[in-house]
């Protein structure tokens, strides 16, 4: 039976101008390049300047994705921005991106699921397209986590970076089989009982401040692998596929040890895993699209490849998306 699939037409990224290496951070907090690499795999990250914001980076990624798709803003019905660091409390970052693209039609809104944000936004856009509420959507993951870091907390400030990535999705009439191109299966989860393990200690309704990121690193690591495995196995079950069937695994880029452990537990060949955490750090909702762009630009991901996306973030939230490119 035929059905609508959400097919990825274009992709793009936008990174801040400034690169900050681990060696540079040695002069900021009590840490070392060796310590950071050993525990996280991170060697550098991009940090936004005052004139670079979540919205400017998001708009840059969206423009790049539109160019790659051979489309213009006039062809888009929907913009969804996944972010935890919007330019303003309101309006939504997506509305500002819409303005920067010169759009006065369609709809634009944000999704907030921290590091799982891009997976949630992809799933939401897929529902809109399959439901006939839009024909084409731009899904953006954009963050400036450097704005909410405590630069005296060496356990967290070395982990995160800034950036944005985007994809253009298009509703396409398809056969309804798993041989179709486009999004094949999704799985989302959350559990608010883990809030205190990864959160920001501020907000308009509580402290009336932005606040800083706080994390219990060992607790996050302890839960991450199991939760990631849970949603991926659900996606495998929904598609009848397994680790041998996927061509590329594009996980959230939080920590190389978590990525390696998750791939090993799932039986995914390490050669199929896309890793960019060493250059980007943890860019939260931007990490999956940034990694996607990296693997597409260098030719690893090709048409008809099965690509598995996965993320876990504060809340906790976690989820996975299976897509045939």
Using the coordinates above, name the CATH class of the largest domain.
Alpha Beta
CATH architecture of the largest domain: 3-Layer(aba) Sandwich
Largest sheet: 5 strands, mixed
Task: Provide the gyration radius in Å.
Answer: 18 Å
- How many runs of DSSP E, i.e. beta strands? 13
Average pLDDT, to the nearest integer? 97
Side-by-side strand order of the widest sheet: 1-7-6-4-5
Helix content: 25-40%
Strand content: 25-35%
Low-confidence runs of at least 5 consecutive residues: none
Class from secondary-structure proportions: alpha/beta
The CA-CA distance between the termini, in Å, is 21 Å
Task: Describe this protein's structure.
- The structure is a single chain.
- Helices cover 32% and strands 27% of the residues.
- It has two domains: 3-174, 3-Layer(aba) Sandwich (Peroxisomal Thiolase, Chain A, domain 1); 182-324, 3-Layer(aba) Sandwich (Peroxisomal Thiolase, Chain A, domain 1), CATH 3.40.47.
- By secondary structure, the protein is an alpha/beta fold.
- Helix 7 (217-239) runs parallel beside helix 8 (256-266).
Write the layout of secondary structure elements.
Elements: E1 3-14, E2 18-21, H1 22-25, H2 33-40, E3 44-47, H3 54-69, E4 78-82, H4 93-100, E5 107-111, H5 117-130, E6 136-144, H6 154-157, E7 162-174, E8 182-190, E9 198-200, E10 213-215, H7 217-239, E11 248-251, H8 256-266, H9 277-280, H10 287-297, E12 306-313, E13 317-324
Parallel strand pairs: 4-5, 4-6, 11-12
Antiparallel strand pairs: 1-7, 2-3, 6-7, 8-13, 9-10, 12-13
Helix pairs in contact: 3-4, 7-8
